[in-house]
Amino acid sequence: MYAPSLDVAGVGNAIVDVLAQADDAFLAAHSIAKGGMMLIDEAQAKSIYDAMAPGVEISGGSAANSIACIASLGGKGAFIGKVSKDNLGDIFRHDLKALGVAFDTAPLDKGPGTARCLINVTPDAQRSMTTYLGSAGYVSPADIDEHTIERSAITFFEGYLFEQPVAREAFVKACRTAKRAGRKAALTLSDAGCVDRQHTALIAFSKAHVDVLLANEREAEALFGARKLDDIAAKARTLCPLTAVTMSEKGSVLIPRDGDIVRIAAVKPERLVDTTGAGDAYAAGLLFGLAKGMSLEKCGALGALSAAEVISHFGARPQTNLRKLAVEAGIL
Amino acid sequence: MYAPSLDVAGVGNAIVDVLAQADDAFLAAHSIAKGGMMLIDEAQAKSIYDAMAPGVEISGGSAANSIACIASLGGKGAFIGKVSKDNLGDIFRHDLKALGVAFDTAPLDKGPGTARCLINVTPDAQRSMTTYLGSAGYVSPADIDEHTIERSAITFFEGYLFEQPVAREAFVKACRTAKRAGRKAALTLSDAGCVDRQHTALIAFSKAHVDVLLANEREAEALFGARKLDDIAAKARTLCPLTAVTMSEKGSVLIPRDGDIVRIAAVKPERLVDTTGAGDAYAAGLLFGLAKGMSLEKCGALGALSAAEVISHFGARPQTNLRKLAVEAGIL
């Protein structure tokens, strides 16, 4: 076995975000659940977009945001995801490549356009997402480049894609490839609604394949059917070697199967502007640290620091070099 | 003659901006003149974009930015410009319509894609622009909707488009339509290089058609061949009924043909982040005020206030309601 030449490979939705300011009345008028993520079809996307305020387009996608943060931390990342041959696909590809991320998945030749996530940000900094998946949902086992997986310390999946049957097959292929190569697999649950709908399958997949499981409080409750930390920890330990639960401003906990719970304090952002990408950035810090063999305390601290940077401005990808911030904070 | 139902109609480049952070070495490596605007072809655009940092996409275009500011000031605006049938064209159209701006120019059916302006912003907040004109340069006399011009108090042209022969014909058609309807025409010079190249034609066009001429210091020097205010004013008065010259942090001057020069102080922004769009925003304040019949002092103050908002953040369009700011400042 050789040492991994990549830190983390992400498999996820290739999405361009459209961020705009909105108020609660707008969310109500369009039946958008505050703080959530809802899949919409092309017609719904057109109708919501037509009604939205002027927007800003920024590359997004949960796992892709994480990989962007890992690059900003000084890590080596790769991404597997499906864009279409259009302007948004070009933008998505450029923004990853410009960070030095390997992204070689062939674009979808015919069919729907590149995915877009319409993100309405309310004055309380909450983001409410409606996603038109477009080509992003077309990730298939053929897109899983085994060489990329084999040379990545960790392969990271976003739960959003778990609902697409062919993408799920791609996940399984990637997990098997990773295991054969002695590498690790990580999964973020992405959305409590998704966990509810896919509960049995997610439990089975996690038990069979996942080394590192990430969830926020609501997702953890949906998966484990428990609210108290001790209950969550007991169930999490039966499922995966390491589980991380994030709790916004209350920080996060890391639950190793064979060790004590590690509590991580949240890092207060300079100012709270837009919570889009907080979980993605936390995952990046944690996975970067794990890929580098750091202590759980440091892994969690990197996650908290990365999340704080990302919520201090509009958009889900870092605008300040995370490695520099981590060095200044004494973590790296 | 009836009262105008629109304040300002803009005729200009329909462009989506791609903003990214860069350093001086990047500008040097790609022969990009700091603070300027350079037209590039598709191959150059690809080469510069490939090398650029991750970007943010925001609708731009000089006159379109001005019209967006006029909407934010509470004015009624229209825009005439050419997008293509692609994602960037959809984004550009959406972002104007979402502000209540009338924008009904038919998209280009075949040919190049929607224009993009690659804007590299250096740590000193200077923006250096390279523009691939794409479909934007295809504005033709057929796109000049006479009804829109007839019902606009002022029709506003951006000098960038003056270099496209067919677009220039469109300008002339719009000016004649405006004059027949008893309306006014305004022109911003846009770029000193453009003024140098088109000097004779710009002098003739301004004298024949332009009621309000806008320029920054460098453009004014290029057009009038003078640096001293008295010399500029003497020449400007022979050309147009009103000339405005902006001088960044030194404020601006308004030169009426039949009156004393009015000096306008600059408004200091909360913080200086990105000067993209400063001139466009100034033009908006000035033209909005003129359309509403306000005093030159107030028109200039509205311009200065609008510019200060736009340079306090990334991107050329306002993020705060300009009307609210103007009311708070006691101008409206």
Q: Short description, anyone?
A:
Chain A has 13 helices and 13 strands. Chain A has 332 residues and is α/β, with parallel strands linked by helices.
SSE order and pairing:
The structure is a homodimer of 332-residue chains.
Chain A: E1 6-11, E2 15-21, H1 24-29, E3 37-40, H2 42-51, E4 56-59, H3 62-72, E5 77-80, H4 87-97, E6 115-121, E7 127-132, H5 146-150, E8 152-158, H6 165-180, E9 184-188, H7 192-197, H8 199-209, E10 212-216, H9 217-224, H10 229-239, E11 242-246, E12 252-256, E13 262-264, H11 278-291, H12 296-310, H13 322-328
Verbal overview:
Two copies of one chain form a homodimer. Chain A has helices spanning 24-29, 42-51, 62-72, 87-97, 146-150, 165-180, 192-197, 199-209, 217-224, 229-239, 278-291, 296-310, 322-328; strands at residues 6-11, 15-21, 37-40, 56-59, 77-80, 115-121, 127-132, 152-158, 184-188, 212-216, 242-246, 252-256, 262-264. Chain A has one domain (6-12, 62-104, 138-328): Ribokinase (UDP-N-acetylmuramoyl-L-alanine:D-glutamate ligase, 3-Layer(aba) Sandwich). In chain A, strand 12 (252-256) and strand 13 (262-264) form a beta hairpin. The radius of gyration of chain A is 18 Å and the shape is globular. In chain A, 39% of the residues lie in helices and 20% in strands. In chain A, the strands form two sheets. An eight-stranded mixed β-sheet of chain A has the order 5-1-8-9-10-11-12-13. A five-stranded mixed β-sheet of chain A has the order 3-7-6-2-4. At the A-B interface, strand 4 and helix 4 of A face strand 2, strand 4 and helix 4 of B.
